Model the fold of this input.
Amino acid sequence: MNKFEPNAYSHLWFKFFHIGIAETRTAREIDFVCACAPLPRFRKVIDLCCGMGRHARHLFNRGYFVTGVDRDGVAIARARELSGGPNYIQADVRDYQLDACAYDLVIMMSQSFGYFDASTNCDVLRRLGASVREGGRVVLDLWNPEFFSAHQGERDLELPDAMVRERKRVEDGRLFVHLDYPDGGYDDFDWELFGREQIISLADSMELDLIIACTDFDRAVGPDPSNPRIQFVLERRAA
Ligand SMILES: C[S@@+](CC[C@H](N)C(=O)[O-])C[C@H]1O[C@@H](n2cnc3c(N)ncnc32)[C@H](O)[C@@H]1O
Done:
């Protein structure tokens, strides 16, 4: 991936942060998704920014029909190698044509929404909202703005195989993260941050209602400023 592209996930990011994700963590996230969009009412799913397909694979194994989309060719190739179940497509989420009302459920997991400027993020949400049928749902697993406002600065992340230096700051409603890897490689990411109120007002203009805002993939636990992640479930309004 071109380093000049914003939010280009390097092979080092995949190596240190993605490949080793525990199956128990993925299973918990999938339990949450399945509870928010149970079979058989929800079956056709698109996993946008699917990475190496950890959610797509699990959902397929539980009986959903799944399409995974990611712009990273290596991630998509690995996803295809790991399971022939879901249909995988290499594409940029900004360009990928989502058919209207084609899905029961859209998921964007692990802070995969918010990478672009405000108007592009709005356009992405509008298109993915329009791609679910009436009563269809959108699951967004995002960074919690309140957590990051209180947790800026530098720290060393002790990973099983390496120490990664992380620097993060929040500015004008965006989170900026710089990672330095042990071999001199680095990554830069930035996200527009969305709290509950911002998501409600953004979604409202797109015929989407917020039906769940929670943390820790537990529908019973409200957003928590001490947890970096927040989950929103939106439902497409009936016309
Ligand atoms: C943090 S990873 C999450 C992967 C997966 N959703 C998960 O939870 O394991 C973010 C993914 O978004 C993908 N990505 C970033 N920008 C993208 C874009 N513009 N279009 C499609 N995929 C993108 C990256 O290649 C990466 O695989």
